[in-house]
């Protein structure tokens, strides 16, 4: 749900609306993901999924980006590379750091960037 808002913060342009959406808003994004979220009501998506995920939305968006990047291979590999492959972990964490910056710029999300859970790679000695 956050991805289009972060794209807007990155580019300064409102992304094209997915089919079926009337306007670019969090409520409309909740409507869009109803079936994927296993919910019948957009308010439930916001209350049960969106609000609790706000502190890690940058990390969730980075994981989503990784899964989108690997596409169908994710079905074969599952989530194992996210916890066992150092290059994958580094990729996701670096992207989460970028998404963290975008969350701060995404005024429509209304997420306090200071409340995000910080995740960083350890510096090599």
Number of domains: 1
Rg, rounded, reads 15 Å
Are there runs of 5+ residues with pLDDT below 50, and where? Answer: none
Largest sheet: none
Verbal overview:
- This protein has helices at 3-11, 26-32, 34-37, 42-53, 57-70, 73-77, 81-84, 86-105.
- By secondary structure, it is an all-alpha fold.
- The protein has one domain (3-115).
- Helix 1 packs across helix 8 (86-105), helix 2 (26-32) packs across helix 4 (42-53) and helix 5 (57-70) packs across helix 8 (86-105).
- The mean pLDDT is 90.
Short structural summary:
It contains eight helices and no strands.
Question: Which SSEs are present, and which pair or pack?
Answer:
Blueprint: H1 3-11, H2 26-32, H3 34-37, H4 42-53, H5 57-70, H6 73-77, H7 81-84, H8 86-105
Helix pairs in contact: 1-8, 2-4, 5-8
Key phrases:
globular; 8 helices; mainly alpha; 0% strand; single chain; 125 residues; 60% helix
